[in-house]
Amino acid sequence: MPDVESAIDRTTVIALRHLAQARAAIHREAWASASRDVTESARLLESIRDDLSTSTVKNLISIARNHLEFEPTERILRDLPPIYSSLDKISIYLPTDKAKMHIDRAKGYLEKDDKRKADGELSKADKSLIIIEVELPLLRLKQGLSKAQKYLDAKDARKADEALQVAEQRALTLYTGLHSPLLQANRESWLAFRNYSTAGRTDTGGHLKQARGYLEKAEAGGSAKVKEEAGKLSQEVAALEKKLAGEGKVTGTELKAAWEKSKALSERSAAYLSAAISEEETTLKVEDSLIEAKLHVDYAETYQVTTAEPAKAVEELDMAAAYLKKAKQGKMVIKGSLGEMDAAVRSIQALTASPEKNDPAVQERYESLKDLLSTLIQEL
To answer: Dmax of the chain from CA atoms?
Structure first.
């Protein structure tokens, strides 16, 4: 939401100021002062999570999950209406369909007195509400500040300053990333899809035009990877605009597919920025390969689940598998993650075997696969 964006902007800049003050204190060997500024910066950045548009519903879900430990199911069922209400409030700005689906399933399990499965669905609802463009940079920042604090405690000026310099870059990325063309395109394409049935052709056309404009801006100023994908999506959105202007309507499926692709591009950009890696064409590292693999899994899900184009889904899954193979061969790969990468490959193979299917089991496999890839990206 706009007011949330503004709050994130202000808080991030103040946190940045504390990081700069901490670095200055390090050069003066004022260790206590540097430590206080790092602590305050970490507190401010953590507060951003509590102020996100999704924080209320995520807290309500957490309350329900805690109640599962000791309350009867009849009592826990009364926790669900506030969750539904909160989801409705934020659905204007953020996609909540998957969260609602998992809450519906949790309700069904609670009515059968199956707390274990209900908890699983509540957990999935919570995960579906993660705002990657904000929460991934925050996670990396938190990790960086913890590292800097350890160096401060050891009075290692060089390493502490280096860690804080990286933290500054990531905090600045959070600030600028909220206004990136790809994130703006994602928002506009969501509004085009979300409001089409109620707002009508004029508003939908306006949102599509805005989305195309942001995609063209990303294409013009982006790396080779951004140019290619943003350019293709820009053309697809332009075709939807033309169809809407001529025939007067487009299908919800077409709008949903455009939004899902835009979301995938926005999340890929956030992953690169959070890792402080450029999207320029270079020899792929482990993290780069995993980020690219997730993009193609996202695209495959759109082709298999949304638009029912199995041949295109297989093509995307094959590309995802190829990137995972590169990731496994990387020199910096962590041994413990090899098993998880193998599990991801097996999931891709299972999806490739039946690309024409679109049932709850297929959708669940895609969700699990994307969660696994996201976890791997965060760990490296």
So the answer is: 69
